[in-house]
Queue: 2 jobs
Job 1
Amino acid sequence: MSGLRSSQVAAAAGVNVQTLRYYERRGLLAEPDRSLGGHRLYPTEAITMLRVIKAAQRLGFTLDEVAQLLDAGVHRHGHPPTAGLQGRARAKLAEVEAKITDLQVIAETLRVALDAGCDDLVACAGSSCCPIPFSTIALGGDPGEQAG
Amino acid sequence: MSGLRSSQVAAAAGVNVQTLRYYERRGLLAEPDRSLGGHRLYPTEAITMLRVIKAAQRLGFTLDEVAQLLDAGVHRHGHPPTAGLQGRARAKLAEVEAKITDLQVIAETLRVALDAGCDDLVACAGSSCCPIPFSTIALGGDPGEQAG
DNA sequence: TTGCATCCGGTACCCAGGTACAGGCTTACC
DNA sequence: GGTAAGCCTGTACCTGGGTACCGGATGCAA
């Protein structure tokens, strides 16, 4: 009894042991009780918390945002309406939708380039018949943000 | 005459001067001639190259992939068919489409959570009526990859 | 009591794509 | 020739989300 070891919690949540301490440092996971020798002893709720963190992360929230969401759930008084899960989820949904739109533009550009049979970017950049919009293309979302 | 200064090239391409040297180190930009004192003197084609790089990056290619694309355009002999722009663009399109699908799942999950009026993740995780799929949600794409 | 697995804190490193700074040289213009 | 802006190399730092390694201490079973 007396609590779960870090490796047990990590395994149960499908997470690395190091990640537990990382989350603790980031303020996402409460500091658990310790054994006499200083080893962490987690309550079972810690596993739930990890699942919540992973779910929120999967929904597009950064760890900082997750920390704020968890804080907002605990404090819950006099915060602006954007601070709750509702407000934040609405903002995040808008973000995700914007991202989807951006990627759709990219996908369409790739499709027309394939259709046009482009096979050399440098040649394409010099030819006026290539459909890749070299001059305007840089105006979109941050480069590299959808590669992963 | 004799070439463009790095700041001129950078300004023309909408890029930081440091970035020019970074790209040179990464092998994306050919080493230009130098003045007697060692200053870089770029041909106007350098600006075109930068536009090409930015375009490819915007289309979802990493800098390593861009370097390979540029190499493939130059060497052009006996490479497998996946090595050309066509093959790589097809693969990248598939990647982008997968990403879009993933984000659509996320957007839909956010929408149902908003619809259901969820306002506390921890409470939601403990309640069976919350539509957020805490147990299966971690199975999707890498966490954090669409935040930006 | 021995032995091995696990855990501790602290620090350093990984990815990508840059950006910033320090200390010194070159170039351009008056 | 003076001065200011620009450029040089090299190295360190940034974000975000972890991961890896180290030397030493603990926990637990036989």
Note: Residues 5 and 41 of chain B are 5 Å apart (CA to CA).
Job 2
Amino acid sequence: MPRSLVRDSIESDPLSSLPGYALRRAANAMMGDLAARLVVTDLRVSDATVLLLIADREDMTSSEIGKVLDIQRANMVPLLNRLETSGLIRRRPIDRKSQAILLTDTGSARLADVRRIIAAFENDLMARIPAPHRPHFVPALQALTD
Amino acid sequence: MPRSLVRDSIESDPLSSLPGYALRRAANAMMGDLAARLVVTDLRVSDATVLLLIADREDMTSSEIGKVLDIQRANMVPLLNRLETSGLIRRRPIDRKSQAILLTDTGSARLADVRRIIAAFENDLMARIPAPHRPHFVPALQALTD
DNA sequence: TATTGTTATACTCTATAACTATA
DNA sequence: TATAGTTATAGAGTATAACAATA
């Protein structure tokens, strides 16, 4: 790499070599991309994530979904209400306190679209990473999340 | 890796092997960590980033800072007002339209604290990544940001 | 004409505290 | 006592449109 290119990249963004900063920038860029791709499904990234999580399950409560996805109980309420209003999920009582969150048929159909979009997104994402770095990417990220 | 561990990790978070999801989770966790470390400086992550960027420069305008950091012009206004009110930056007219954003002495002193905290943060972050993955981390992220 | 700085506004995401009802 | 679901609310971050003044 020519010295001038190093200088240019340093001058255009002197923080880009900081791991935390690079991580934030990459995540923002990729989530912006994903959100744009999901517009056609009328779903937000968190919505799509919930649908993916409850697929093929009939036993997850709102609290459990929140624990897995790092979304607080209180913030699950508007999210699930939105999905229920859209007819994508329904609630089935487990006891008089808890409810299972289930996909409706409409939800399953929408999930099929989501799966296609996510697959293309994940594929494009990995394709942007130079091959030698690729196998290290997800393991490194997982190590940061615990 | 024993099959039971694979099953456990899949059951506890079946999405963790998706690169985009892993990226989002890692970035959220790390930025939460950094924000907590910066509490003692009374700065937000974006505030600290701006201070780092304008250090040793006397020529950056609000618009230019925003372009580098991916913060829109309109959103720079409250950010810089906050830093100015705290006495960390000041504005020097370049012409009758543009102003350079400069660190004050107070800002330089605060930046020294920020640098120490960021250095420890970046160090701890990289330390959490297993050594074989470590050199691939920042290059992979940079490839995603363009 | 394009750009700088700004105002106003709205939406999303996230965080906390508190309440009710039930396990 | 602890947990599930909820309400209300506030703080951040982000996005758009529009405006005046100046390059």
Note: Residues 1-10 of chain B have pLDDT under 50 and may be disordered.
